[in-house]
Amino acid sequence: MDHHDIAQICLNGHCINSAYNKLPQFNQDFCDKCGEKTITQCTECGVNILGDYENGVMAIGFEFHSPEYCHNCGKPFPWLAKKIKAAIEMAELE
Ligand SMILES: [Zn+2]
Ligand SMILES: [Zn+2]
């Protein structure tokens, strides 16, 4: 039994909704900060992105940070892949 909700995150890594199932009223097809498309699944393997953990310890209101790597396939998510690419292009920065 998985107690994680699903996280909805834009392709630039802005967390839109860390409780996709529990709070569907906050779902957005596009990011309100940068206009990018949002995803709820790993673009590599299609597994759901882990959102809030619902066991009473990490409740709603806990600050959610977008994960950087997929927990299932280990591939960097698109927002991290962009950062890595940018870091390679500008070697000293970040
Ligand atoms: Zn965004
Ligand atoms: Zn994956």
What does this molecule look like?
By secondary structure, the chain is of the alpha+beta class. The protein has one domain. The chain has 1 helix and 5 strands; from the N terminus they run βββββα. The chain has one helix at 78-89, and strands spanning 4-6, 8-10, 15-17, 38-39, 50-53. The strands form 2 sheets. The protein has a 3-stranded antiparallel sheet with strand order 3-2-4, with no helix packed on it. It has a two-stranded antiparallel sheet with strand order 1-5. It is globular. The chain starts with a strand and ends in a 5-residue tail after the last helix. The mean pLDDT is 89. One zinc ion binds at residues 10, 12, 14, 31, 33-34, 36. One zinc ion (ZN) binds next to loops.
Write the SSE topology.
Elements (H helix, E strand, L loop, with lengths): L3 E3 L1 E3 L4 E3 L20 E2 L10 E4 L24 H12 L5
Antiparallel strand pairs: 1-5, 2-3, 2-4
The protein binds zinc ion (ZN) (2 copies).
Number of domains: 1
What do the pLDDT scores average to?
A: 89
Helix share, percent: 10-25%
For the biggest sheet, the summary is: 3 strands, antiparallel
* Terminal Cα span: 38 Å
Bound molecules: zinc ion
| Morphology call | globular
The SSE order reads: EEEEEH
The total count of strands amounts to: 5
Structural class: alpha+beta
- Which stretches are poorly predicted, pLDDT < 50 over at least 5 residues? none
